[in-house]
UniProtKB/TrEMBL annotation:
<keyword id="KW-0964">Secreted</keyword>
<keyword id="KW-0732">Signal</keyword>
<keyword id="KW-0713">Self-incompatibility</keyword>
<dbReference type="GO" id="GO:0005576">
    <property type="term" value="C:extracellular region"/>
</dbReference>
<dbReference type="InterPro" id="IPR010264">
    <property type="entry name" value="Self-incomp_S1"/>
</dbReference>
<comment type="similarity">
    <text>Belongs to the plant self-incompatibility (S1) protein family.</text>
</comment>
<feature type="signal peptide">
    <location>
        <begin position="1"/>
        <end position="22"/>
    </location>
</feature>
<dbReference type="Pfam" id="PF05938">
    <property type="entry name" value="Self-incomp_S1"/>
</dbReference>
<dbReference type="GO" id="GO:0060320">
    <property type="term" value="P:rejection of self pollen"/>
</dbReference>
<protein>
    <recommendedName>
        <fullName>S-protein homolog</fullName>
    </recommendedName>
</protein>
């Protein structure tokens, strides 16, 4: 019975697409979170996110909610989002670097090995954060205004 189970697992591993193999072997699964931290009684936040391979669609998150997705990142994975809030809009890469969420002006914006990229949308701009070893959230203002 055990021999039969080993054969099934081996066959599943062989027929899996290569991108799943690399995630299983190299452990490069990543997450992006979009946190709606806008004030109450304001226009609805709308955003659209995509990559070259994945269309995540348009989203209208409630205040305080967290829209997130997981993916298998490679060295050329890029996700971007376009945000609208009332008459304001902004667009930028929310993920373009395996090691640190985003690479901007030659600098890793958050510490190396950030598995969860947290984007907090506020009325005064966009904040990028990460989970540290103690499970604390640390946010840094990335974009000053809309």
């Amino acid at each position: 019975m055990v021999h039969y189970l080993v054969k099934i697992i081996f066959l599943l591993f062989i027929i899996m697409p290569n991108n799943i193999h690399s995630c299983l072997i190299q452990g490069i699964n990543r997450e992006v979170h979009i946190l709606n931290s806008l004030p109450g009684n304001t226009p609805q936040l709308e955003f659209h996110c995509a990559s070259g391979d994945d269309e995540l669609g348009y989203h209208y998150p409630a205040i305080g909610s967290d829209f997130n997705w997981q993916f298998c990142a490679t060295s050329n994975t890029l996700f971007f989002c376009h945000f609208w809030w009332g008459d304001k809009d902004s667009s930028f890469d929310v993920f373009n670097r395996i090691e640190s969420c985003v690479w901007w002006d030659g600098v890793d914006f958050v510490p190396v090995d950030a598995v969860k990229c947290l984007w907090k949308v506020q009325d005064d701009g966009f904040y990028l954060g990460y989970f540290d070893e103690k499970a604390n959230k640390n946010f840094y203002k990335k974009y000053r205004n809309w």
